[in-house]
UniProtKB/TrEMBL annotation:
Lineage start: Bacteria, Pseudomonadati, Pseudomonadota, Gammaproteobacteria, Lysobacterales
Coiled coil: none
Alphabetized UniProt keyword annotations: 2Fe-2S, Iron, Iron-sulfur, Metal-binding
Cleaved signal peptide residues: none
Keyword Cell membrane carried by entry: no
Annotated SUPFAM superfamilies: ISP domain
Protein name, entry field: Rieske 2Fe-2S domain-containing protein
Amino acid sequence: MRTSLNNDGESTLLARLEQIEDGGFAEAEARFDGTPESVILHRDGAAVRAWLNVCPHAGRRLDWAPGKFLKSKDGLLVCAVHGASFELQRGQCVAGPCRGDCLRAVPVEVHDGAVVLAGQAPAT
Ligand code: FES
C-alpha cells in the first residue's frame, strides 16, 4: 500500500474507503507542522475530498458530535453551529453567514482503499 507523508515525515492513513458511507462523511485527525487538526472526509464513489474541520464563519468545528456531520436534502454539508451550507466540490459556502467563503481543502488520495494525505498542508 502506498502512503503519503505528513510534515512529520510519518505515513498518514486517514481512513479506509469502506469505512466511509458513499455520499457520507467521516472525521480523521492529521498533523500539520506537528499540530493535530481535525479533517472532514467526504466520499464520492471511489474518490474522497477533504477539508479542515474549521468553519470559515466563526472557526468552529462543523460536526455536531465528533464525526457526525449534517447533510441537507440538497446534498450540502451544513455547519452544526450556525447553519452555513457548503457544496461538496470546492467546499464553498452557498448559504448562511459566510456565503462565498470556502473550507480549507486538504489534499488526499485513495490507494488500494486507503485514504491518505497527498500533500504537506491544507490549501488556503
Ligand atoms: S461557525 Fe459554522 S456557521 Fe457559524
